[in-house]
Specification:
heterodimer; A: 303 residues; Alpha-Beta Plaits; 2 domains; 4-stranded antiparallel beta sheet; 11 helices; elongated; B: alpha/beta; Rossmann fold; 7 helices; globular
């Protein structure tokens, strides 16, 4: 235990005596971690949007005007029995008209056009929600292939599907770019830590020589460098946690406005996943720095 | 105490630092190894401290065959061999006390033992009054005495001195040699590597002469003859 504390003391000395080296190393590690957290933020936001859009997607199958009540009931039963369908609701043509009016309440032209109409142009509609949004095509195909195809006037589900596709596409691109940036920073961090340990070994050349001379064990000579690199990881993580919460505070007002309809709280997301996110990041960054310093020690520290 | 059997050290491609060297140094003996530069004196020290391995032959230190020493055992060997150098190898940012204490700290010695032992060993080398000074505040002779104190801190059975007086004037040289003799009289085997003629002649001890990596002379009470 005494030896461990001495090793820790030497590691701390390495840490603060090489202040500028430490500063550069920690800064690069912070950048790497921050880019990972920005990636997590983007992922959580896009997931939330996609999830919400998924919940709102449905197919409105408008029935032909002379559809009887019995035919509507049979058709609903048929649709409900399709395994991919989660729910098959019914909207009367009056309800459809009312919904259309509500959706366009701010558009005086449309409101005026409706007032001009003598009859309701809408028909009864079956509102279908799928278990999985990818299945809408399949559901439609099943309906069209069925005996009830003659009841269908038209259907509309293309717009939400387009939104989902767009968000998914942007999200994938952002994820790939973010991953690339995180990997790039990771690589830079690896090289910087490697170089820092190399320079630290060089600046401690005399001390290491004396340690060897007086019979210090290999473990005792090498361990302070490993611990110093773990300290870089720890300090950079602490700074990163502070930075991320500052970032969330600055970003939240804009994000709240942008995602007003989606009920998404970034701070709550990070709070809820605090140990998972930062714990994993700590393990990752410790592995990265310790591996890097181990390589540098193996290469430059002869004991 | 030290046995070299047909020790050869070849530096590639074809430089022999030592060539088929046979040497036996007994317990509590004082031996001077002399020779001109590049005759293998320092290589011999490096082999004894396991900084390098011989190309051929067998090397026994205190009954321990270190020819095939495992890396993890090297620190144990080095604690049994004290070494002093021409350039002292002291850490300038540490005080005299800290320099010597450092040798104990890195080996896991407790603070109370360090506080007890360091002043004792400084008393042996006559520097107890300069315990809080830094190396750069001491003369060359005093710095070498600190080096000796540090080498003695683990109570080694062997003290290797690699040109210990190379950077010192004649007065300091005499003091250091007197100190080494005193340490030898107290029971430590001393191997002095030097090319200082006056030192060797002053000692009137065993002298082994190396030339081009070979032992060319081994006198029981020798003089410098190169």
């Amino acid at each position: 235990m005494l030896t461990f504390f001495r090793v820790l003391k030497f590691a701390l000395q390495d840490f603060y005596r090489n202040f500028w080296l430490t500063l550069v190393t920690v800064s690069v590690l912070v950048l790497a971690l921050f880019s990972v957290n920005v990636l997590i933020t983007l992922k959580s936001v896009s997931d939330s949007i996609i999830d919400n859009v998924h919940k709102r997607v449905d197919i409105n199958v408008m029935l032909v005007s002379d559809t009887t009540e019995a035919e509507v009931t049979n058709f609903r039963t048929f649709v409900s029995n399709i395994p991919e369908v989660a729910e098959a609701g019914f909207l009367s043509k009056d309800a459809v008209m009312e919904e259309f009016k509500q959706n366009n309440i701010d558009n005086p032209d449309i409101q005026a056009a409706i007032e001009e109409l003598d009859t309701n142009p809408f028909n009864d509609t079956i509102v279908i929600k799928a278990v999985n949004t990818d299945d809408y095509d399949l559901i439609l195909q099943k309906i069209i292939a069925s005996e009830y195809s003659t009841l269908i006037d038209n259907n509309d589900f293309s717009d939400p599907q387009k939104i989902i596709s767009f968000v998914q596409s942007v999200s994938h691109k952002v994820e790939r770019f973010g991953l690339f940036i995180a990997c790039l920073f990771g690589l830079i961090a690896f090289l910087i830590v490697f170089n820092t340990i190399r320079v630290t070994i060089y600046t401690h050349k005399e001390e290491i020589g004396v340690m060897r001379l007086v019979g210090a064990t290999n473990w005792f000579i090498r361990m302070p460098f490993i611990l110093a690199s773990a300290l870089y990881a720890f300090v950079s993580l602490l700074i990163n946690v502070g930075l991320i919460y500052l970032f969330i505070n600055l970003l939240s007002p804009y994000l709240d406005t942008f995602l007003a309809d989606y009920n998404f709280d970034l701070a709550a997301y990070f709070n809820h996943n605090f140990w998972l996110i930062f714990g994993l990041e700590f393990i990752l960054v410790v592995v990265l720095t310790v591996l890097s310093s181990a390589f540098a020690i193996r290469r430059y520290l002869k004991v | 105490m030290i046995k070299l059997r047909q020790i050869t050290k070849l530096y590639k491609p074809n430089t022999y630092a030592l060539h088929c060297v046979d040497l036996h140094i007994k317990d509590k003996e004082f031996v001077s190894i002399i020779g001109q530069s590049g005759t293998g004196k320092t290589t011999l020290i490096r082999l004894l401290t396991a900084e390098e391995k011989p190309t051929k032959g067998q090397l026994i230190v205190g009954g321990w065959d270190i020819t095939r020493i495992h890396r993890r055992d090297v620190p144990i060997l080095r604690r049994q061999i004290g070494v002093i150098y021409q350039d002292f190898k002291l850490l300038n940012q540490k005080t005299i006390f800290e320099n010597i204490a450092f040798a104990l700290q890195v080996c896991g010695t407790s603070r109370s033992t360090i506080n007890k032992v360091v002043p004792q060993v400084l008393r042996i080398v006559g520097l107890e009054s300069k315990i809080s000074r830094y190396p750069w505040q001491l003369s060359g002779g005093e710095q070498q005495r600190v080096g000796i104190a540090r080498a003695l801190i683990h109570h080694p059975k062997i003290l290797l001195a690699d040109e210990p007086t190379g950077n010192l004037d004649s007065i300091n040289t005499r003091e250091i040699i007197a100190l080494l003799k005193k340490i030898n009289e107290l029971g430590t085997t001393v191997m002095l590597v030097t090319h200082d003629k006056d030192v060797v002649n002053l000692l009137k001890k065993r002298v082994v002469t190396l030339d081009q990596g070979r032992v060319v002379s081994d006198q029981k009470v020798g003089r410098y003859m190169l």
